[in-house]
Amino acid sequence: MNKYLSAVFLFIIFFGIYYFGSFSKIPFADCIGFVFSAEKGVLETTATAINHFIYINTVILIKNLLGINAIEASRFVVISSGAATVSVIYLTVKSITKTEWASLTAAVVFGFSFTFWRNAEIIEVYTYNSLWVSLFFFSMIKSFTEKKKIYILLSSLFLGISLWLHIQNILLIPALAVFIFYFRNEKKYAVVSLLIFVTLFSSLFILNISQGLPFKSAYSSERGTWVEDSFKKAPLQYVKDFFQSLGYLLYNFNLFTYFGIAGILMLYKRNREMFFVFTAGAVCVYGFSTFYAVSDNYVFFLPFNIIFALSIGYGLSSTKYASLRKFSWVCLLIPAGYLLFYKVLLLTEKGKEFHTFKAYKGGLNYYVLPWMNNNIGILEFTIDKKQAPETIEWMTSSSMEYIELLKSKGYTEEQIRKL
């Protein structure tokens, strides 16, 4: 099958999967803030660490072009970029392995990985960010496999653009630096590539300073001291964080984790340069995400998860695993694995306690199952003046502002409750 036809097929399939599993009502967490910003319709003119310049402005442009509300515009951007990322994963693995079944399997495994799938079902920046990060990885691998110099330039372009989506992507700068070092003999392209990245990166600071914001606004936020707190943990907590990160890895990639590790070892033996490029990025992202002092640190692993998915495809392409091709359909059972794990947890006392404690936003359904259809919404929670057993004022305050905005546009409380 033509590789581009396979990529289109994957896009259509995962667009459908993500669409049918998408949220029924605006979920909890940061979702309400993004929708509120988009509904106001005012384009961002600064690029701070928390406003995600390109994401918000893309949603607003889609909203205006298609004449739809902020919720549906957000859904479209999230789902389409999520499905496109799966296709890019496939094309990337195919370019290095030339193996159709391994490429398809790696793409499906990533598409069904919990963290990515969950973020394709809610209103968040991470699938859109993953698309640009995956294009960065795609371009670097193409530079190695096809020797086309244009990809040296595109690598810097895509990483530079991704910084305007999420500043966390500065953790991938070491990967770009090692990459450009290995292509230093292509002096013209290496220098131009570096200039492209420096221009895009420095423009973040220039834009913010021109708008009267401090220099650090591009990478720091006054809302919290999360980075500083990451260095203040007790030694035992760092150990717990590390084992928790391994739990995230296994939950995302299940039995395919083995092939990811096999792929890493195989790449080290066969292509040291590519190995060190991706190791530079993977170590920085994994290390930061593991110890970052936020409750939802699992989402910050996504750039690493993309690298690991590519490694799974590379590992599966080994001739010693060729006989596994006829069992590659097993990856289609991953959703059933989430459901089974959910059912098992509900049989345990701790699982029941957790389900009850988090019942205000869906309990274990919210934390263990990636799909979000028929979910509990933050707007109905706020309108009904319900109480949570933990602090969520930062969510409900944004929710109340959004409710007032919708009321000013003629929505009734009953209509808003359904959003």
Give structural attributes.
21 helices; 67% helix; mainly alpha; 419 residues; single chain
Descriptive account of the structure:
This protein is an all-alpha fold. The protein has one domain (3-357). Helices cover 67% and strands 0% of the residues. It contains 21 helices and no strands. The mean pLDDT is 92.
Low-pLDDT runs: none
Total domain modules: 1
**Percentage of residues in strands:** under 5%
* Rg over C-alpha atoms, rounded to the nearest angstrom: 22 Å
End-to-end CA span:
42 Å
User: Element order, helices and strands?
Assistant: HHHHHHHHHHHHHHHHHHHHH
Number of helices: 21
Computed structural class: mainly alpha
Q: Specify the biggest β-sheet.
A: none
The counted number of beta strands is: 0
Overall residue-averaged pLDDT value: 92
* Helix percentage range: 55-70%
What global shape is seen? globular
Draw up the topology in text.
Elements: H1 3-21, H2 31-40, H3 53-66, H4 70-97, H5 100-111, H6 114-119, H7 126-145, H8 150-163, H9 173-182, H10 187-210, H11 226-229, H12 235-253, H13 257-270, H14 272-291, H15 302-316, H16 334-345, H17 349-357, H18 364-368, H19 378-383, H20 393-408, H21 413-417
Helix pairs in contact: 1-4, 1-5, 2-3, 2-20, 3-4, 4-5, 4-7, 4-15, 5-15, 7-8, 7-15, 8-10, 9-14, 12-14, 13-14, 13-15, 14-15
Transmembrane segments: 7-29, 49-66, 73-93, 99-118, 125-144, 150-183, 190-209, 248-268, 275-294, 300-317, 329-348
Pfam families: TMEM260-like
Keywords: Cell membrane, Glycosyltransferase, Membrane, Transferase, Transmembrane, Transmembrane helix
